[in-house]
Amino acid sequence: MTTECPILVGIFDGFSWIRCEGKGSFLNSPALKAFSLERIAAGETCLVVDLQACTGMDSTFMGTLAGMASRLSANDGAALQIADAGERNRHSLEDLGLDFLMEIDPGKAVWSGSVDAVRAALKPHRPVTALGQIQRTEHVLEAHKVLSETNERNLRAFSNVVTLLESELETKQKQAETPGQPS
Q1: Cβ neighbours of residue 42 closer than 8 Å, sequence gap 6 or more
Q2: Whole-angstrom Cα distance, residue 148 to residue 82?
Q3: Number of domains in the chain
Q4: Does residue 26 form part of some domain?
Q5: Whole-number Å distance between alpha carbons of 46 and 110
Q6: For the chain, how are helix, strand and coil distributed in percent, rounded to 5?
Q7: Which of 38, 70, 74, 157 is the most exposed place for a label (fewest CB within 10 A)?
Q8: Number of CB atoms found within 10 A of residue 74's CB
Q9: H or E stretch including 70?
Q10: Mean pLDDT, to the nearest integer, of 147-165?
């Protein structure tokens, strides 16, 4: 059985912090996205994703990070920063070419002197509503589309996944429209 690993969050002077504890996956990436969208809508220009306790990331989680970085880059001077990526997570991000969308372990960050205090102040993020099957499939599809749009290599790597997810989403939507059919 797959368990959802917590996403902890905090709002600070000049940045918002998101910490993934355990594996970053399709299960907890909706919470990551929800909080980042809330903060971007509130005018936040610096989102920090703390990967120190993150044991690995699946493609949906990394696609969600790429989507966050793209949304932030639309605002002049805004950035997604990764704190304590570690060798494995850094390699995963670099392997997909995402290091060009975000600042990984930036040397001079507004938060660099207060990491311990920030981590001590974090609280669990609980989205208002849980995602249903259709919404979860839409989320996973969006994340993989973002990855595919990042570069030609990712387009080739994820084209079958995107096609499969589009078909799965269409099937789930048709089932939801037909009364008496399981969704």
Answers
A1: none
A2: 21
A3: 1
A4: yes
A5: 9
A6: 50, 20, 30
A7: 74
A8: 8
A9: helix 59-73
A10: 96
CA–CA gap between residue 51 and residue 47 (Å, rounded) = 13
CB distance 20 to 50 below 8 Å: yes
Alpha-carbon gap, residue 150 to 154, rounded angstroms: 7
Residue type at position 16: S
pLDDT tens digit sequence for 15-50: 999 999 999 999 999 999 999 999 999 999 999 999
Task: Read off the tokens for 11.
Answer: 């709002």
Tell me if 153 is assigned to some domain: no
Beta bridge partners of 8: 19, 124
Q: What is the pTM of this model?
A: 0.91
Residue 52, in any domain of the structure: yes
Share of the chain above pLDDT 70, in %: 95
Q: Residue 9 — φ and ψ, nearest 5°?
A: -140, 160
Residue 71 located in a structural domain: yes
What's the rounded mean pLDDT across residues 106-125? Answer: 94
Give me the domain span that covers residue 96.
7-127
Question: What does the block give as tokens for 53?
Answer: 């306790």
Hey, which bits of 13-166 come out as E strands?
15-20, 22-24, 46-50, 54-57, 79-83, 103-104, 123-124
How far the first Cα of the chain sits from its last, in Å, is: 21
- E strand residue ranges, the chain: 7-12, 15-20, 22-24, 46-50, 54-57, 79-83, 103-104, 123-124
